[in-house]
Each structure stands twice: as C-alpha cells, then as structure tokens.
Amino acid sequence: MWIQSLFSYFKQAVFTLLGISFIMFSLTMLSTDDLAKQLITGSEDIIVSQEQIDAVKKELGLDRPFLVQYGSWLFHAVQGDFGFSYMAKKPVIDKILECLPATLFLSAVSLSMMLVIAVPLGILSAFKSNRFYDYLIRSISFLGISIPGFWVGLMLLWFFGLRLGWFPVVSSTVRLDTVILPALTLAVNMSAKYTRQVRSAVLEELGQDYVIGAKARGMSNFYILWKEVLPNALLPLLTIFALSAGSLLGGAAVAEIVFGWPGLGKLAVNAIEYRDFQLLQGVVIWIASIYMLINICVDLSYSHLDPRLKKKEHSHG
Amino acid sequence: MKKWMKTCISALLIGTASLALYGCGSDSQKSGAAPETLRIGVTNFADSLEPTDNYFAWVVMRYGLGECLVKFDQEMNPVPWLASSWSIGKDQLTWTFQINDRAVFSNGNKVTADAVKSSIERVFEKSDRARTFFDYTEMKADGQTLIIKTDKPVPGLPGMLADPLFIIIDTTVTDRDYQSMGPICTGPYMVKSFSKAKAEMEANPNYWDGTVPFKKVEIPSIDDPNTRAMALQSGEVDMAVNISPGDLKLFTDSSRYRISEIASLRTVLARINMSPGHPLQDPKVRAALISSTDRKTYCENLLQNTFITGKAPVPPSLNYGFDQLTDPNNYNPDRARQLLSEAGWIDTDGDGYVDKDGKPLEVNFVYYSSRAELPLFAEATQADAKKAGIKVNLKNVDYNILDSMAKKGDYDLCISNIITANTGDPAVYLNWYWKTNSSGSNPQNGSGFSSTAFDTLSDRLSQEFDPALRRQYMIDMQQIILNEGAGLFFGYPKTNMVSSTSITGAEILPADYYWLTKDIRPAKS
To answer: Given pLDDT bands bounded at 50, 70 and 90, which one contains residue B333?
Structure first.
C-alpha cells in the first residue's frame, strides 16, 4: 500500500516536472529576441557585432528549431546534465551545488528561528484569546506580514549591524554569525504567518470536548498542551511548515541580495538578469523538485501522524 | 500555566542574548582590524578568473591581479604600463612595442616580448571577442621588442590593447586552475581564494612597479547598494565602489570619508529616426522636440545630480571637445513651438497637441526599464514635449527587443545607456550609430541618418594615426550630429568610489576597471 502511494506520487512528480520544464523552456525562448547578445554583454550596454551574436547562437545551438532544442535539453537533463551556464562558464549542476549549502544552511536556521518565535507566541495567543497578549501578538504578526522583506532586512542591518555592531553587515561568507540577520529577516515574515496559524489550530483544539474533560479531571495546562492539544494541532501546521521550507529551499532572493548571501535565490535572479536560460532552467527544476519532494514527505507523514487517515486509506483500499 | 510561559520567555531571551553575544565575539571585521588588510565592497559579476571568458578579464584587472601593455589615464589617453613605449611604422601597419625591462610576473618570471606574444596569441585563440578589436597578420618577439603587423591600418591599436581582455599572463604555467586562482599576472596582488561572493588577495612579492601597500585584500561582493553603504559606515569595508546617489550624502564628513566622483564613459541618448514616413524626418520637428526637453532639470533635480547634463554624443570625461561643441537645440520651449509652427504643425482642434492635415503629431518613444533612469528620462520627455504640443507615446520593452527594434528602425525615439569608448576613443560608437547604413553596411544605424560630410570624416578617421587630427575629426563628427538634430543626448551618469580616510589613493577613473591599484595605501604610511 505504502509503495503503491509512493509510486503514484512519483508518476505525478514526473509529469509535473515535464510540464514545468516545457513551459519554462517555451517562456525563456519566447522572450529572447536576441538572447545571444545579452549572453555576451551581460548587463553592460556594449556594442556587439552580428558575427559575435551568430557565433554564440551557433555555439549554444540557439539556431536550431525549438522542439529540437527542448528535446536535446531533456535528453541530457534526465542523465543529470542540465547544460552549461554561459554566465558562470560552469556546468549548471556544479553552479547549483555550489550555492546549495548556503541555501540549506539559511533555510535550516530561519526555519528554526521561525519555530522558536511562532510556536510559543501562537500558543500564548491562543491561551490568552481575546485578551491583551492576544491582541498584541496578533497586531505584531499583522505588521510582520505587511512589511516587505527587503525593508525588514535593511532595518535589521541598520540596527544590529550598524548601530549596535553585533553582527556583520556583509554576509557573503557562509558562517554562523553571518547567517543570523538574513535568517531573522526571513523568519520575521514567516513567523508572522505561522503565529496566526498556530493560534487558530490551538484555539480550535482548546474548544474540543476532550480538553474540557481533561481539565475536569484536574490535568495541568502544560500536560494538556503537550500531550493532547499540540499533537492534534500538528497536522495543519505541518502543511504550512512544509510550504515555508519548500519556498526557502528554492532560495530567498530578496534576503540573499540584501545581505549578499551566496544562495540559490540570488543565483536565480542573476540567471534572469543575464538571460542564462540553461542555468535558470536548472534552478527552476530544482525548486519544483524540492517542492514536490517535501509535499510527498508531508503527505506520507500524514498517515503516520494521524492514524485515522491510515484507517480511512485502508477502508477505501 | 505561568510556569511554562516563564520557561518559554526565558528560553527566548537566553537564545537572543546568546546570538547577540556570539555576534559580538565573532570576527565581525570592524575597522579595528589589522592595518595591513584592505577591504573593498564591490559588485562582482564574474564566476571565474579566466580572462578570455565573457567579460571576466574586467574583474581580473579590477582586483589588482592583471595588467596590460597600455593603460588609460584620466582622460582616456593611452599611457605606458607593461610596455614602456610604442610606435607605428611608415607603412601604418607595423606597430613596435617596447616591453618594460623591469616587468616580472608574480612567479618571478621576466615579462619578455615572447611572453607577451604568447599571451596575446592565447587571447586570439580562446576569445571570439579579440578579433572585434583588431586582427594581426604577424607577431614577432625579439628580446623586449614586440612587433605586431595588421592587415589594415588600426590607429587605435594601443588603446585596444588596454582592454582587460589583453591582460598579459604567463602562459608557461599550465597546471593552474584559472577559474578559481586566476592566471599568473603582473599586478600588485595575487589570488589567495576566489568565489563570486568573495575574493581574498595577497601581496605579490615580486611586484615590479614599487612596493605593494597591503599584505592582504578582502573583496566581498555586495550587490545591494544600501548594504554596501552600510558596510562602509560600519567599517567592515575601507572603500566601496559605486555608492548609490541617495546614499552619497552619508559620506560628506570629509574627516572620515573621501568621495571620488567623475562622469563615466556612458551616454544616455535617444536615437532619432529620421527615415521617410517618420514624423521626425522633418529637421524642424526634430529641432523642436530636442529644444522642448529640459535636460538640465532632468539631471540635476529629477536624478538628483547623479548625471551631468547632456549635450553631445561623447561625455565630458573624454577629451573630445565637449566644451567647444555647440548645441543649436538648447532648451527653449518658445523656440520649439515656433519651429513646429514654421513646419506647419498647429493645434487646430484645441486638444493641446499640434496637428497637420488632420493628423496629430505623435512620436513613439521606445525604452527599457532595467536601468532605472531610462523610464524617468522617457516620462520627462513626454511631459515636456506635451507642453510644446508633441504627443509622445511611451513603449516599454525588454532590452533585447529594443536592440532589434533599433536596428530595424521600428521607433521614432529609442533610448540607450551606452559605453562610448571602451577602447579609448569613441570612433566605434560614432560610426555604428551614425555612419550611413547603405543596404545593411552598418546595421546598428537603423535611424536613417546619412550625411556625406560625416561619412567623409569617418573614412579619414579610419586611416588617420595623428592623435590631434583624430580628435578633431571626432569633434567635427559630433558637431554634424548636433547640427542635424540626429540624437537627443540626455546626460552622462557619474560613477564614484568612496573611501575611509584611513586609506589614500582611491581614485575612480573613467575606465571602469582600475579599482584596486598599487596607489591605494594606508593613510599613515
């Protein structure tokens, strides 16, 4: 049964990736009236001769029919060769792998920060529902959702980097002290959303009969929270957490650019800027794959976390 | 309940405090760092230090690693660098370069004419771009003398060899990873480690041209201009290249910072299509449109003095007669209206726009927005032209699409921000945009502009070696463009380098590849 589900997820993933890669390839080629020139000059407006442009087109196979180009790309991609980045003069896969550790590190730290901030605040907000602390936390989370990420980043830089001097302003080297501010920037916005989700999930569980029963039996709030409420509230929270993780692993472009963090988000923006379509294609496939992988993991974990779902699957099966 | 709340709050506080303490205790690279280390905040586009790939050679030079035979001075005149002198033979095809006898590579090998020859040959072998500068029929090395023969006269060859593509490297070293360590060059610094995000350089112990002031140089790439400014304010970097105009006022305290600012080699201009059937074919309408634009206000107010007001095709950073050129179409809205009236364009229906034979005067202005100033110039032109009665329709397109539209002549006005002289003189730029395009002979000129006088000067220029005469030809060519109203020159962007007063010698030059030089030194040394 478990293997059947996995196989079904795998089939879906393959078709989705094929669709994404085709759409991506078409869009890239549609917007490239003179892709070769951009590849030569990057963001510089330098006069380029037609001969140079033709040479690059030939070198990259841009003079071939669209479907031939896509087919060729796909043939190599399934063998793990995502092409050559013209911007970096390196294989695409090498460039992605170069940026991946920084992205994984930033994602892990910011997700941890998000949990440390959002879970206690969400629970507190639920327990103090419609009282001062709840209003305060909800207002702050509303603010956190509304403020754009780049502004939060710049303010954190200004305050903690420039005024207090606690953290370095430049985060171009991947270290524990350089990751804190970019991770916090991402965590602020995610925590704001997550706090509200934690609050509503916990609040819903607190109104259930089993909680009232537990209270009547004289159990402590701490016991009810950890042993009864949180396990039941975990399922909806897991989905949001997985989506956040997926989005972070695809790169957090704004924070990465503000802090100079060498991750996948910045790489994707550079690839767009330089019209490095093979690199862009590789990054998009990575993002799509990681999203799907995380979703599959979450779906599979549902039945493990909630035995009722497993039972339902069995009865349908 | 209260107990677990207290536990959570305490954990949060302890966590935050630990992070803060960690930050304080870490190597945050403040200004108190060892004085033998220089830190520079830049933006870096290169993933590799192989000089023949893309424009990566610019970074090899910017980071103080590579040097050429020739360099440009503050007015973009070619001056000796690894070559101590050069001359052209009577046949106007044979160039002789004398290589500086003192020059050595960072590995201690002498820079001989043979080494230079082999380095230039490697560039031609590996880069398609080399032949767009010049082509040679023969190259000979004898001791410190290098002879380059070309198949046709190339008056600007020394300037072309100043392009970073022609950085001189030791080709005898073959077991080196050029991508991550760069080639063996002759500059004051060598690569210790390199990635796109950060480079670490160390002093070249064999530097041939004086002492190297810093033992170590760290160059983080900081793409966001606000962050770059904050890094300089916090002391994490000692100098930064291209601080955004809005942030420059943070560095006006001359006891702490020094700003070096100049007009760059760039011109922001709108090409004007004067082909038959286009409204700007009429010289009076062209003159009216140019006269209606208040370019001084655009540059000084709208763009907060980050641009020098435009007048001529070539910016004032180059010594090509900017001050002596006269623009017959200076800002004068009354004259603009008068010219339109003389050309038969009058507002008969009272809608604010002039018309003739029942048709309003409409002009299509094509622009791209990846450079922030271009939409502003376009919108300002639209507003000013409206005051004169000309309707300007703005069309925002991708840069690549704009380029092909420009070649096809699918515009009335087409804006660009262009480097005018990356080989030292603006001959290529003037020819490509304004030399007659006869049956595709000059595809970059899609404007329909054709002037016999201009073409004659251009032909003379291609054969002329005398710098004074070449300069005069290019001044005359510019004056023809101005008289014909064959371009709307908005302005010239400024470029800057801001440094802490703890160092000296950080000077920005018009050529955008002399950043880390031997002249940048600690202030107290």
So the answer is: very high
- A9: in domain: no
Is residue A165 located within the same domain as residue A60? Answer: no
| Nearest residue of B to residue A127, measured between CA atoms | B1
B266, closest residue in chain A (CA to CA): A45
Q: Is A97 on the interface with B (CB under 8 A)?
A: no
Contact A55 B128 (CB under 8 A): yes
Mean per-residue pLDDT for B450-465? Answer: 94
Q: Is A233 helix (H, G, I), strand (E, B) or coil?
A: helix
In this predicted structure, the answer to whether residue B1 has a pLDDT above a threshold of 60 is no
Predicted structure pTM score: 0.79
Residue-range definition of the domain harbouring residue A170: 96-316
Measured CA distances, B425 to B168, B412, B472 (Å): 22, 28, 12
Query: Both A69 and A126 in a single domain?
Result: no
The SS3 assignment for B455 reads: helix
Boundary of a domain, candidates A33, A52, A79: A79
**What CATH number is given to the structural domain containing A259?**
1.10.3720.10
Contacts of A166 in chain B (CB under 8 A): 20, 23-24
Question: In this complex, do B400 and A120 lie within 8 Å of one another by their Cβ atoms?
Answer: no
For residue B236, give the nearest of A44, A56, A168 by CB distance: A168
**Could you tell me if A297 and A129 are in contact, meaning their C-beta atoms sit under 8 angstroms apart?**
no
Does A107 lie in the same domain as A74?
A: no
A101 and A66, same domain (yes or no): no
The verdict on A211 and A62 lying in the same domain is: no
Same domain, A69 and A133: no
The reply to whether residue A158 touches residue B230, judged by beta carbons under 8 angstroms, is yes
Which among A38, A50, A120 has the least Cβ separation from residue B12? A120
**Using CB atoms and an 8 Å cut-off, which of residues 185-244 of chain A contact chain B?**
221-222, 225
pLDDT in the model for residue A48: 65
Residue B356: in which H helix or E strand, if any? strand B355-356
Per DSSP bridges, beta strands B391-396 and B355-356 are: unpaired
Residue linked to tokens 């809005």:
B246
Do A37 and A184 lie in a common domain? no
Q: Note the ipTM here.
A: 0.74
Q: Which residues 33-52 in chain A show a CB within 8 A of chain B?
A: 33-35, 37-38, 40-52
Residue where one domain finishes, among candidates A79, A104, A128: A79
Does residue A14 belong to any structural domain of this protein? no
Q: Give B456's contacts (C-beta < 8 A, 6+ positions apart).
A: none
Is the CB of A160 inside 8 Å of chain B's CB atoms?
Answer: yes
**Each residue of B363-381: b (16+ CB within 10 Å) or e?**
bbbbbbeebebbbbbbbbb
Residue B83 pLDDT more than 50?
yes
Number of structural domains (chain A) is 2
A140 to chain B, any CB pair closer than 8 A? The answer is: no
Chain B residue with CA closest to A123: the answer is B5
One domain, residues A147 and A257? yes
Would you write out chain A's pLDDT as a tens digit for each of its 317 residues?
667 777 888 888 888 889 988 988 887 776 554 567 666 665 555 566 667 777 777 777 777 888 888 888 889 888 888 888 877 888 999 999 999 999 999 999 999 999 999 999 999 999 888 889 999 999 999 998 888 888 999 999 999 999 999 999 988 888 889 999 999 999 998 999 889 989 988 888 888 888 888 888 888 888 888 888 888 888 778 888 888 888 787 768 888 888 889 999 989 888 887 777 788 889 988 888 888 888 888 888 877 777 666 666 555 54
User: B91 phi and psi, to 5 degrees?
Assistant: -75, -5
User: Which residue among B41, B231, B400 places its CB closest to the CB of A38?
Assistant: B400
- pLDDT score for A66: 82
Interface test with chain A among B2, B3, B5, by most A beta carbons within 10 Å = B5
Q: Do the Cβ atoms of A88 and B48 come within 8 Å?
A: yes
Looking at residue A11, what is its pLDDT? Answer: 85
Asked if residue B374 lies in contact with residue B415, where contact means CB atoms within 8 angstroms, the answer is yes
Q: Report if residue A13 sits inside a domain.
A: no
Residue A5 lies in a domain: no
State how far residue A284 is from chain B, nearest Cα, in angstroms: 20
Q: Given an 8 Å threshold on Cβ–Cβ distance, is B132 in contact with A165?
A: no
Instruction: Say if CB A33 and CB B401 are below 8 A apart.
Output: yes
Decide: B84 and B164 in contact? Cβ < 8 Å.
no
